[in-house]
Request: fold
Amino acid sequence: FNDAGVRICRLEPGSKTQFAAVLKGGNNAEHHNHNDVGSFSVIAGKAMVICDPGGEVYTARTFSGRRYDSKVLSSRGHAVPVIGGQLQRTGAGAQAVVRRADFRDEEDALVLDLTSAYSVPELKSLQRTFVFRRGKAAALTVRDEAAFSEPKGFETALITWGTWKKLSENELLLSEEDGTVRVTIDTGGEPFKISEERLNEDVPTRTKPLRLAITLESPVKAATVTLTVTPR
Reply:
């Protein structure tokens, strides 16, 4: 969907594996906006295992200057980076610029420039590359490449309504209802930590969303972090 900057990726017709992804560009001044430029969701089986948490139960805050105090409406509630400790800013100027859109039978590739979404003067560039592969090696790869004029912190995140566990130092298993995915983390050798946060907002879903943060342990001048999501 060119105007919205949204891509829906599915496997080939007749595939025995149930696996799909939704990739979002857009900007942060959309109708009923959430600060979610560059976010993504992953469906396995019939469940959205990596999710967009959706809206909160409306209150006066929702439609006030404190709207983005909400952890589900701000970028804290979406699978996007945190740069130098800063969440995404609001407004049309925070826009995902499409650098490449290449859709083929065997794989889809979408490259987004997310630099403008962050009010961090030291951020020189932030590019997110999505690659959705079909066939026997079905997977979604999400690669972030960031460059700074001086060392800054880098963090990315996964959002889920389900459960998770560590399989190894760089592998996670996320499950929701009948769907399960494996997430492999590659930080290019930079030490990182994984932490969880329950997004304690009033939401209409049966469980409150869980945020899994993948955080580089030290500030860096350049970061390349790749998450590979595969159906199990």
About this structure: Residues 41 and 51 are 5 Å apart (CA to CA). The chain has a mean pLDDT of 97. The chain is about 0% helix and 50% strand. The longest strand covers residues 139-152.
